[in-house]
């Protein structure tokens, strides 16, 4: 058997198995925006981690927050993202009861040589900028979407400002101030905030002066992530799409196509039956 050690002056030098895959980062949101008091999870997906360790560092003061499953800060609002899957490649940093002072960059780092790292920016926005009136709610893309098992669900929900709605909204309170709007994501009628233990779920909402866009990201999807995804904005409206989780994109596409064809044939048969009945009555 080949020995991977080289002896120099009676001291062995060991090398990693050359067939071992190098670790790499998966795609995650690099900027997340929340309001004070919310709970946020900064995601870090690492493939081929091996025996290496994932650490989260606050770049403003180089404070090590977590390393592996251990928390190194006395601030108990910070912790590793809970997960029920020991083989999960998601290494999230959870921050509870977010404060304005938490705004800044956070670094997900691997103890490799050289070090591998990605930065995630957390923005805690003044609530007044979110108290904007919007009109209409839509989720981008088709009503039925396919995601391969192990892939990433990415959905974008948006609404635009209506000046008419602005006036109505201001009159909806006795003090003349607009009501705060909340973007709520749910899957099969269960709020996404109730699925924190699942891990790998991120919601990034960008509140602008003429539009709000909320992006939902669900990583490492399984069959349990299949279902109806709904985006709702208080007093404005909602929209939903159905997400299929498949092993092969062609399988569900064929099923959808077959279902559509079957529906078309049924409609045509009903149409011709009605025409036949009408002709019998006329003649």
Commentary on this structure:
There is one protein chain. The chain has about 280 residues and is an alpha+beta fold. The protein has helices at about 165-170, 250-280; strands at about 5-10, 10-15, 25, 30-35, 40, 45, 55-60, 65, 70, 80, 95, 105-110, 115-125, 135-140, 145-150, 155-160, 185, 190, 200-205, 210-220, 225-235, 235-245. The strands form 6 sheets. It has a 6-stranded mixed β-sheet with strand order 4-13-12-7-8-9, with no helix packed on it. The N and C termini lie far apart (about 95 Å). This is Titin.
Which segments are poorly predicted (pLDDT under 50) over 5 or more consecutive residues?
1-14, 128-133, 165-180, 251-264
N to C succession of SSEs: EEEEEEEEEEEEEEEEHEEEEEEH
**Outline, from the CA principal axes?**
globular
Number of domains: 2
Number of strand elements: 22
How do the strands line up in the largest sheet?
4-13-12-7-8-9
Secondary structure tally, helices: 2
Which secondary-structure class do the elements indicate? alpha+beta
CATH topological fold name of the largest domain? Immunoglobulin-like
Could you name the CATH class of the largest domain? Mainly Beta
Largest sheet: 6 strands, mixed
The residue fraction in helices comes out at 10-25%
Task: Please state the average pLDDT score.
Answer: 74
CATH architecture of the largest domain: Sandwich
Rg calc: 26 Å
GO cellular component, one term: neuron projection membrane
Domain Ig-like: 23-121, 133-242
Pfam families: I-set
InterPro entries: Ig-like_dom (IPR007110), Ig-like_dom_sf (IPR036179), Ig-like_fold (IPR013783), Ig_I-set (IPR013098), Ig_sub (IPR003599), Ig_sub2 (IPR003598), Zig-8 (IPR037448)
């Amino acid at each position: 058997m080949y020995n991977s050690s080289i002896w120099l002056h009676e001291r062995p030098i060991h090398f990693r198995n050359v067939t071992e895959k190098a670790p790499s980062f998966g795609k995650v949101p690099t900027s997340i925006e929340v309001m004070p008091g919310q709970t946020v999870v900064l995601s870090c997906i690492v493939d081929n981690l091996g025996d290496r360790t994932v650490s989260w560092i606050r770049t403003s003061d180089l404070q090590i927050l977590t390393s592996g499953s251990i928390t190194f800060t006395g601030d108990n609002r910070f912790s590793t993202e809970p997960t029920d899957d020991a083989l999960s490649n998601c290494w999230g940093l959870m921050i509870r009861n977010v404060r304005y002072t938490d705004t800044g960059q956070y670094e997900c780092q691997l103890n490799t040589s050289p070090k591998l790292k990605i930065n995630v920016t957390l923005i805690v926005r003044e609530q007044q900028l979110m108290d904007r009136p919007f009109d209409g709610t839509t989720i981008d893309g088709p009503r039925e979407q396919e995601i391969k098992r192990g892939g990433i669900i990415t959905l974008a929900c948006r609404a635009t400002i209506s000046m008419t709605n602005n006036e109505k909204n201001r009159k909806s309170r006795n003090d003349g101030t607009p009501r705060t709007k909340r973007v709520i994501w749910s899957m099969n009628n269960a709020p996404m905030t109730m699925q924190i233990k699942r891990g790998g779920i991120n919601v990034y909402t960008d509140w602008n002066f003429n539009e709000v866009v909320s992006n939902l990201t669900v990583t490492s999807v399984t069959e349990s992530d299949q279902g109806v995804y709904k985006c709702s904005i208080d007093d404005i409206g909602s929209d939903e799409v159905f997400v299929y989780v498949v092993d092969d994109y062609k399988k569900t596409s064929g099923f959808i196509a077959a279902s559509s064809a079957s529906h078309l044939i049924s409609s045509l048969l009903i149409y011709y039956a009605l025409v036949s009945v009408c002709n019998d009555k006329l003649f």
